[in-house]
């Protein structure tokens, strides 16, 4: 029963659609005329997915010019759940790359994911913003 409640809080559905083969993929995209690393989450985000994703993100960030910073946008609209260890792996990646990151935007309508973002903001010295659509993202 608790698992059904958790799924509902995260995805808004008791029986969410099955995940795609790739639960987290990252790509460079222009948002509000700023080049961003955008991560799209689908389905359940596991610890192994987080490790693979963070290796890819670290490689992308290491190829940037030395003094540049990049914003990361996490599109969590289709995320159905995440493992606590996956959040910790991602959180550690953020903290380890804090000097190269401009901020983190989380796109979600899920109260549970909003809560996860707030929890991360307590442990990572990085501005974390939560919105319900990409159109509401702005950079200062």
Task: Give short descriptive properties of this protein.
single chain, 140 residues, alpha/beta, Transcription Regulator spoIIAA, five-stranded mixed β-sheet, 5 strands, 31% strand
Characterize the biggest β-sheet. 5 strands, mixed
Which of globular, elongated, flat, extended, rod-shaped describes the shape? globular
Order of strands across the main sheet:
1-2-3-4-5
Q: Could you state the order of secondary-structure elements as H and E?
A: HEEHEHEHE
Radius of gyration, in angstroms, nearest whole number: 14 Å
Distance between the termini: 44 Å
Helix content: 25-40%
The total count of strands amounts to 5
Average pLDDT, rounded to a whole number, is: 87
Named CATH architecture: 2-Layer Sandwich
The CATH class, by name, is Alpha Beta
Structural class: alpha/beta
Indicate how many domains the architecture comprises.
1
CATH superfamily: STAS domain
- Taking pLDDT < 50 over at least 5 consecutive residues as the criterion, the unreliable ranges are none
**CATH-assigned fold name:** Transcription Regulator spoIIAA
- Strand proportion: 25-35%
Total of DSSP H or I helical runs spanning 4+ residues: 4
